[in-house]
Input
Amino acid sequence: MRARGLTKRFGDFTAVAGIDFGIARGEAFGFLGPNGAGKSSTMRMVGCVSPPSSGELTILGHDSVADGPAIRARLGVVPQENTLDIELTVRENLIVYGRYFGLPRAVIRERAASLLEFVQLSDRAEDQVEPLSGGMKRRLVIARSLINDPEILLLDEPTTGLDPQARHIVWDRLFRLKQRGVTLILTTHYMDEAEQLCDRLVVMDAGKIVTEGSPRQLIERYSTPEVLELRFDPSDHQQAAEKLVALQSALQSERQEVLADRVLIYTRNGDQALEAARALGVEPITSLARRSTLEDVFLRLTGRQLGD
Amino acid sequence: MAAPTTARPAPVATGRGRAVQPWGFAIREFRYWLTNYRRTWRGSVISSVLGPVLYLSAMGAGLGTLVNRHSSASLGGVTYLAFISPGLLAATAMQTGFGEGMYPVLGSVKWIQNYFAAAAGPLRPADVFRGHLMFVTLRLFMTCGIFLAVIAAFGAVRSPLVILALPAAVLTGLAFAPGLMAWSVTRTTDVSFAVLMRFVMVPLFLFSGTFFPISQLPGWLQPVAYVTPLWNGVALCRSLALGHADLGGTAVHVGYLLVLALAGCVAAQRTYTKRLYE
Output
């Protein structure tokens, strides 16, 4: 898949402002960014259900606009909203969907059974969809997206709104698909999701790609190995933050970020920085030394947190 | 852990433009609606029988005995039951067109979102529309066919041509359904549906010659009635059911209803594409 100058405008609003990217077969590729960054608009163009305003997009050797049906026949799509037919049973949802691809009845039946097994919903096969939990519905959408045995799987925020346990089950299934050679393309605003699943990702902000690389590369490039998070009493927060800025060299920190509720100190060694800060009379209520994450990369690149 | 089978879809399924006939994709959407209908067909068949039975007994048999005492030439010399039966048939087709063209379409983009699910696969918006329209056509054949059977059971059949009233009634429904689908797919709520039913469907139902000849309307209103799709449908069905259809009138009615149906289809292909591809 290759995009050149890919742009999507809605009236005066530019959702995607001329982005370039390439995705190789078998790769797990992520679009990371806050809400409104242009991730979903990009995904809809990649899914061939939203013609680009300008630019080129080639998928599986076809032009995304001219050969939409041929490309979509080889894609699996997990949309942001589940779009399951809540009036049908779990199994019927798969069967109805398989027919959209013109698959023979026997193939659909066989695949539906093995996919339900794969997403651990076999025992709910004849149940209505409506009462299923959020995690089960999400797994069913994933099963449905696989009914045509797609070469590329598009996942728009696959685990948004799921509880931690349900997220881990989804991640596990996606990881297995990746192992089988299915190309995964996903959007997320969860850093941990990107770190878990993506070989390579781009960070998007305001319709543009800000940077690109593997999670590890991005962390090395834009952050320090460790981060010390300090929390202060809200009344002391501002004062303490100013004091820490003055102590930057003493703490051997490369950079500091003052957030509304915390101060982040970017350093090689978080515990040492904490000791140094204490020795200099800084008294945080709580402290946490942790490894850098993509969240820190994003903060560095955009000056904002992902949840903003 | 069972693995999804690794075989690729059969080549015919990939839908590379030339490989699939123009209607091949639409039939896939049609089959979705058939599967969906399997859950509700009993209820809908019962109401399709109950509706005409109630109307024909109340209006035809009940009110009709009163009307027949003052039988006038304007009814064309037939009983009131024979007069209103084809009118009600056409009106029922219209109602079915409204019913199928509004809520199920909005539901498909808003509540169930099955249109978006379909558009994520190989189907194009035009296929989604055509497939759904095929199902609406089937529903029209069902309700109108049942209606005709009830008319026959009431002994109100006057001409063998009545069998042609079935396609005529279906065409009447199709003069409404595609246009309504074109409009409904652009909606985000159903509030305007009730308004449309109250201020468009009900007046059409009452004043398009269903219950009385439009010669009874005030002079200035008659031309309005002539251009309504329902009057054309009523006139067509009635002329066939009573056996006084002539070629010229039939051609005008059929042509007019066909134009409306096709205009609705053209509009729907545009609005479906806009809604599903933005």
